[in-house]
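Need a sequence for this fold. Nothing fancy.
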């Protein structure tokens, strides 16, 4: 019987190209008639066979099928005459008023939601004269160059930092350009 840690490792392993390659090398090393039952039972693709489809794939499939079915039901309700629906046995269905009202209400709701979202962003944005537009808890001053560096040494890359507003104003508004 193989050690417990090895069987746990095989059961929860990731299918990487390296694992597949090492598996094929192990198979080539053993003669055909001497393969043990454990090596034939475990395959490099075992983890994908055990897991099955991902929940997001299932939700996407069910959602797409539901959308198609709901659209077909809506179109049948919108375009098939009342007498034909009643002959099929469908006697209760919403008024035809909702054929136009439902999509209209949906579009207006989406547009109002978009306007509300934009309004919340405007409310959350600080005023242009506020110092919060220049400095916040993540602001970093540029670091100083190490004074112990010799002239022949290469200059290291400066760490990420904010550019001072006076330097930006000087670059943008002075005719002399960069200092």
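Here you go.
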């Amino acid at each position: 019987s193989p050690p417990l840690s090895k069987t746990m490792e095989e059961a929860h392993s990731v299918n990487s190209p390296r694992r597949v390659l090492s598996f094929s090398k192990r198979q080539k090393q053993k003669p055909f008639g001497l393969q043990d039952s454990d090596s034939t039972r475990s395959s490099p693709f075992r983890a994908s066979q055990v897991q099955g489809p991902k929940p997001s794939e299932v939700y996407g499939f069910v959602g797409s099928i539901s959308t198609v079915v709901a659209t077909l039901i809506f179109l049948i309700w919108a375009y098939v005459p009342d007498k034909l629906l009643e002959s099929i046995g469908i006697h209760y269905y919403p008024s035809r008023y909702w054929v136009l009202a439902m999509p209209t209400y949906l579009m207006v709701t989406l547009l109002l939601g978009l306007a509300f979202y934009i309004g919340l962003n405007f409310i959350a944005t600080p005023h242009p004269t506020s110092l919060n537009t220049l400095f916040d808890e993540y602001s970093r001053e540029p670091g100083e160059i190490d004074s112990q560096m010799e002239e022949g040494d290469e200059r290291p890359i400066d760490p990420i930092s904010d550019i001072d507003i006076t330097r930006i104003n000087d670059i943008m508004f002075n005719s002399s350009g960069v200092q």
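For context: DSSP finds eight helices and no strands in the chain.
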